[in-house]
Structures are given as structure tokens and as C-alpha cells.
Amino acid sequence: xxxxxxxxxxxxxxxxxxxxxxxxxxxxxxxxxxxxxxxxxxxxxxxxxxxxxxxxxxxxxxxxxxxxxxxxxxxxxxxxxxxxxxxxxxxxxxxxxxxx
Length: 100
Description:
By secondary structure, the protein is of the alpha+beta class. The protein has 3 helices and 5 strands. The protein has helices at about 10-15, 20-40, 80-100; strands spanning about 5, 10, 50, 70, 75-80. The strands form 2 sheets. A 3-stranded antiparallel sheet has the order 3-5-4. Strands 1-2 form a two-stranded antiparallel ribbon. Strand 1 and strand 2 form a beta hairpin. Helix 2 (about 20-40) packs across helix 3. The mean pLDDT is about 75.
């Protein structure tokens, strides 16, 4: 299979790849230190979700993903694909990294 390592699909193989664990660690470090920098200056942080009012995918051929609908103050809204997929993938990589 193209893009596979040891017979595993690439998207699963990266879960054990030290490079991606390192990227998770680097993202965590940059995020943590940035928050510390601004916290020391009494600046507050607020993460805003990436949302959309419509579904632009994931109905492509071979896709098994489903849109994630959330309710924002009574308005049906969907997580943008990038946020939906990065959240799941990031949680999986972080979990694997934490256990190694």
C-alpha cells in the first residue's frame, strides 16, 4: 500500500513515529511558554472554535468521516474539518507520546 510503513497505513504509522511525537512536544512547549509570557503580563487568553454554518465535506469518495455538529447558543454549527480531524489526531498522538 502506498504511504504505508510495515503494512500499516501511513495515518496509523505516524502514531509511533518519534518525529510526530516531537512535533506534539514542540507545539506544547511553544503554547505553554507563550501562555506563560502573556500570563506574566496579565493578558488573558481565549480560544475561539473554528466553526462553519455549513458542511463542505467529508462526503468524498472513500471518506468515512462524519461532520461534528455543535449547538452555539441555539444555532446549529459544525466544527470545521481541520479542527475536527486535528483534535482527534492530536489526542491520539499525545496519548501515544505520554505512554512511551
